[in-house]
Specification:
The complex is a heterodimer.
Chain A lengths: L1 H32 L9 H13 L2 H33 L1 H14 L4 H12 L3 H26 L2 H9 L4 H12 L1 H26 L8 H10 L3 H29 L1 H4 L4
Chain B lengths: L1 H21 L3 E6 L6 H9 L1 H5 L4 E6 L3 H9 L5 E4 L1 H9 L4 E9 L3 E4 L15 E4 L5 H14 L9 E3 L2 H9 L4 E6 L3 H6 L5 E5 H5 L6 E6 H6 L1 H20 L1 H8 L7 H10 L3 E2 L6 H10 L21
Parallel strand pairs in B: 1-2, 1-3, 6-7, 6-8
Antiparallel strand pairs in B: 3-10, 4-10, 4-11, 5-8, 5-9
Helix pairs in contact in B: 2-11, 11-12, 12-13
Classes of the chains: A mainly alpha, B alpha/beta.
């Protein structure tokens, strides 16, 4: 436990060091280049604008909306991906169907689907969730399949020897056996989902009356509030790093690293 | 070997750039898509500016929205841009060094709906989404003016906007789903109103209470102080192109038809009966400034019109 805590603290310190260095480069760029704040605002201006965003009470709400949307989309997307995994491992036809679907849709950027999504689902929260689901399913399915194939045959034979039901087989053998891949899939999906969400929000405008962070950035852009725009980008980055380090970092330490099977 | 090739390409690019700079005058002009920009299309095809200023090099760029034009001007990539007055004022307010040097067009722009129950702005509920190009655009400011006029509150609709380019907004409206209304400009407003069930809720002139310039031309202070003569010749060419469209619409249609996928007869009727007027006069500037200052879209007032407007020299 102590070891785990040290790891997290060390990692956080390193993160802060690198971020500090980046901010230093930013400050010196502002200082040396003497740019107009419309082109490159200083970290101080961005920070003030961030405070203003929170004190006006909108930014906090917008962050919650964005996170709620991404969480909903990821949960549904992950469930569908598991359903596809079942399909793929239960029969040869199922597998070729799922891999074909993945080959078709994985390279298709969510934003390319936008015009169609607008026609089908309109421009509300439903469309944004649809785009998130699309960006989550395919990397998730690919990773799940890879994880399934990586399970040593011996494990499966042991399972069969115990005459486990297919349900138990899934929870006792498949799931833990392919967990590193599941985790990797979740990480990739999260990054894709977060990116898709921000771009979709910037296009769709305000959902749930105030919109999410993407909308925050877009409205700062159209009113030429460059420090505000940077503040929005900072928020997007901070949330990205927090989820990566805290949520996934902790899960990783508690599971695959402890089991000694990280990929 | 490969490094050498790359290096020589870079050298060629650089040397051609410097050739350009030392030689003739070069100007980059940014515009957008729509009938309000038609005189620029004529200018381009008939080479009116080149006729007036031999040896001038003109780069035309078409950008998707006004924010992109502003950012390009800010980055020093564009000298002259065309857009509505409100986004120009927002840029000026934030410290951009540029001025209006000419009007381009007046047009009917307005809010179109397919919904039977929406006849005035009073009928709109908070769930009825309105598509328009972006907050801060002339469409948005006119909608706010109308909201102020009829509902007493300029920002009532601000939380139900969907930002869409005109063509996307039109297809969203025509699909009759969750976009209740679309604030748009020619030719989209004409195309929409010619469809069954579509009607106009309010238009710009009604919101504003007077005529106004829809699209105007802006120039960076750097360019206007360096090349004042070039600028007035460009303005003159723009006037000529506008007059050409108004006086000889048949010939104009023949030139324009390639750029708009609209049948010739329809295009002709849009140009002659659609309420489009091409003029270098700038109208409505003080009204936009007043409204935008009062409603908090602008932080400062220009002390004199010279700060934002280059007077015609009538040469």
């Amino acid at each position: 436990m102590k070891y785990l805590l040290n790891r997290i603290i060390n990692r956080t310190l390193e993160r802060f060091m690198w971020i500090g260095l980046l901010i230093l480069i930013w400050i010196s760029a502002v200082w040396i280049g003497s740019f107009s704040p419309l082109v490159l605002p200083s970290p101080y201006q961005v920070f003030m604008s961030l405070l203003k965003g929170f004190s006006e009470g909108i930014l906090g709400k917008q962050i919650l909306i964005s996170i709620a949307l991404v969480f909903t989309g990821m949960s549904i997307g992950t469930l569908i991906a598991f359903a596809f995994l079942f399909l793929a491992v239960s029969s040869r036809m199922g597998e070729s169907f799922v891999t074909t679907l993945t080959a078709i849709f994985h390279p298709l950027a969510g934003i390319a689907l936008l015009p169609v999504v607008i026609l089908w689902f309109g421009t509300g929260a439903l469309s944004i969730i649809f785009i998130i689901i699309h960006s989550v399913i395919w990397p998730m399915v690919t990773n799940l399949l890879m994880g399934y194939r990586s399970i040593p045959e011996t494990y499966k034979i042991v399972g069969r020897n115990y005459q486990l039901s297919s349900f138990k087989m899934f929870f006792k053998i498949t799931l833990p056996g392919s967990f590193p891949y599941i985790l990797a899939g979740l990480k990739i999906s999260w990054a894709r989902a977060w990116r898709a969400l921000i771009s979709a929000e910037m296009i769709f405008g305000a959902v749930f009356s105030s919109g999410g962070i993407g909308w925050f950035i877009f409205s700062k852009r159209v009113f030429m509030d460059t420090p505000g725009m940077f503040a929005g980008i900072v928020v997007v980055i901070v949330i990205g790093v927090l989820i990566e380090d805290l949520v996934f970092g902790v899960i990783e330490n508690r599971t695959v690293r402890r089991w000694g099977m990280s990929v | 070997m490969r490094i050498l090739t790359v290096f020589s390409i870079i050298m060629i690019v650089f040397s051609s750039c410097s050739n350009n700079k030392s030689g003739d005058i070069s100007v980059t002009i940014a515009d957008q898509y729509g009938l309000a920009y038609a005189p620029l299309q004529i200018l381009k095809e008939k080479k009116l500016i080149e006729e007036q200023i031999p040896g001038i090099k003109i780069n035309w760029v078409k950008l998707g929205n006004t924010a992109a034009i502003r950012e390009a001007v800010l980055g020093g990539k564009v000298d002259i841009g065309f857009m509505g007055i409100p986004p120009f004022l927002i840029g000026w307010d934030k410290g951009m060094e540029w001025k209006i040097f000419t009007g381009l067009s007046k047009a009917q722009i307005g809010l179109v709906t397919w919904r039977e129950d929406l006849n005035t702005l009073n009928d709109f509920g908070p769930a009825d989404r309105i598509a328009l190009p972006q907050p801060g655009s002339i469409q948005h400011i006119l909608l706010s003016m109308a909201a102020e006029k009829y509902l007493g509150e300029s920002d009532v609709f601000d939380n139900q906007l969907v930002t869409m380019k005109h063509p996307d907004g039109m297809s969203a409206l025509l699909s009759k789903r969750d976009v209740a209304a679309h604030f748009t400009s020619p030719p989209y407003i004409m195309m929409e109103l010619s469809e069954p069930d579509m009607k106009l809720v309010v238009d710009g002139k009604e919101a504003m209470g007077s005529d106004f310039t829809f699209i105007a031309g802006m120039v960076t202070n750097k360019f206007s102080s360096k090349h004042p003569d070039v600028l007035s010749l460009i303005r003159k060419s723009i006037s000529m192109a506008g007059e050409f469209i108004m006086k000889k619409p048949e010939e104009a249609v023949a030139i324009l038809k390639n750029d708009y996928s609209i049948p010739e007869e329809t295009l002709f009727s849009y140009l002659t009966e659609g309420g489009l007027e091409y003029s270098h006069e700038v109208e409505g500037l003080p009204k936009f400034i007043n409204f935008m200052k009062t409603e908090g879209y602008l932080e400062k007032n220009p002390e004199s019109m010279d700060e934002i407007f280059i007077e015609q020299d009538n040469k």
